[in-house]
Amino acid sequence: MTLSIKEIQVPVADEMKAFEHKFRQFMKSDVMLLDQIMNYIVRRKGKQLRPMFVFLSAGVCGQIAESTYRGAALIELLHTATLVHDDVVDDSNYRRGFFSVNALWKNKIAVLVGDYLLSRGLLLSVDHGEFDILKIVSTAVRELSEGELLQIEKARRLDINEEVYYQIIKQKTASLIASCCAVGASSVGATADIVKRMHAFGEKVGMAFQIKDDLFDYGEDEIGKPLGIDIKEKKMTLPLIYALNKASWLEKRRIINIIRNESHKPKKVSEVIAFVKDSGGLGYAQQVMQRYVEEARALLYEFAESPHRHSLEQLVQYTIERSK
Question: What is the pTM of this model?
Answer without folding.
Answer: 0.89
